[in-house]
């Protein structure tokens, strides 16, 4: 899946390191890393987002949600090689799906465009992936994480929804509704994203567990949005998240019934 190289000593051939992408003084990798940033009218925040992105990433994919400000021009001035994708539909889920399709890296990192995420943390996500995880999930409530942005009501709602997912799907998450995640490209073949709104993160978290993928939580600190206001609505989007959980639970039960049905047993017997 990946190759990892500790920083070569003086006795190593200089040419060997040239095949790797150094990400710290102790670690280098071969997989190209794509950072996907969904954005709509985030021109004022992008300078804060881009200045924390590490220079060793392979590409930045900006998904523009039909911005009416200078979002695209600012992105190109900050990162000349940025890949700009025009969002086809509406909603964060739709934007991320478009960005994932356009990304060419073996590793894909999701980063919000509001300045709440620290790009310096990407090294922790990538390190988890090259060390064996399939999906590196950011958590504001894991030891070492934190948030400056969540109200008490949102924290309680996130905790309640997270508890339901853990109990119903056998997950061990400390955070559910957080958009800072990273994963190997092959995960997309197993989770089949098909939602358009903020509930996309919950859907991903549920489906990676259902697919049996190895998940590692990464402590992450969420900062306050720097400029503008969020499109997130706690009650509305909380209900959409709950609906996704119930649908995924229903789908899981239906699949179990199919597997246990006499017809399925007879087909398996005929096949053998």
Automatic annotation (TrEMBL):
Recorded hits in Pfam families, A to Z, give: Glycos_transf_2
Metal-binding as a keyword of this entry, yes or no, is: no
Q: Which residues form the Glycosyltransferase 2-like domain?
A: 34-156
UniProt keyword annotation of Transferase present: yes
| Gene Ontology molecular function: any one | transferase activity
Organism of origin: Streptomyces bauhiniae
> What family is this protein classified in?
Belongs to the glycosyltransferase 2 family.
What name goes with this protein?
Glycosyltransferase family 2 protein
InterPro entries annotated for this entry? Glyco_trans_2-like (IPR001173), Glycosyltransferase_2 (IPR050256), Nucleotide-diphossugar_trans (IPR029044)
CDD domains the UniProt entry points to: DPM_DPG-synthase_like
Enumerate the UniProt keywords alphabetically. Transferase
- Which domain of life does the protein's organism represent? Bacteria
């Amino acid at each position: 899946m990946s190759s990892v190289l500790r920083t070569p000593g003086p006795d190593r051939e200089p040419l060997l390191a040239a095949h790797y992408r150094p990400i710290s003084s102790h670690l280098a990798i071969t997989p190209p890393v794509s950072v996907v940033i969904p954005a709509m009218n985030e021109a004022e925040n992008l300078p804060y987002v881009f200045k924390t992105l590490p220079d060793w990433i392979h590409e930045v994919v900006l998904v523009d949600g039909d911005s009416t400000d200078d979002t695209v021009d600012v992105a190109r001035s900050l990162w000349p090689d940025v890949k700009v994708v025009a969002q086809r539909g509406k909603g964060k889920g739709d934007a991320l799906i478009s960005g994932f399709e356009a990304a060419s890296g073996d590793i894909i990192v999701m980063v919000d465009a509001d300045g709440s995420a620290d790009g310096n943390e990407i090294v922790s996500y990538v390190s988890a992936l090259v060390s064996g995880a399939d999906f590196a999930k950011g958590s504001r409530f894991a030891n070492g994480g934190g948030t400056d942005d969540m109200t008490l009501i949102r924290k309680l709602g996130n905790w309640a929804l997270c508890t339901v997912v853990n109990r119903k799907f056998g997950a061990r998450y400390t955070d559910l509704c957080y958009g800072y995640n990273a994963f190997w490209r092959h995960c997309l073949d197993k989770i089949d994203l098909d939602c358009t709104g903020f509930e996309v993160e919950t859907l991903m978290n549920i489906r990676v567990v259902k697919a049996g993928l190895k998940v590692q939580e990464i402590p992450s600190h969420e900062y306050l949005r720097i400029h503008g206001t969020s499109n997130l609505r706690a009650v509305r989007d909380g209900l959409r998240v709950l609906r996704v959980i119930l649908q995924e639970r229903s789908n899981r039960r239906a699949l179990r019934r199919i597997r246990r049905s006499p017809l399925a047993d007879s087909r398996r017997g005929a096949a053998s």
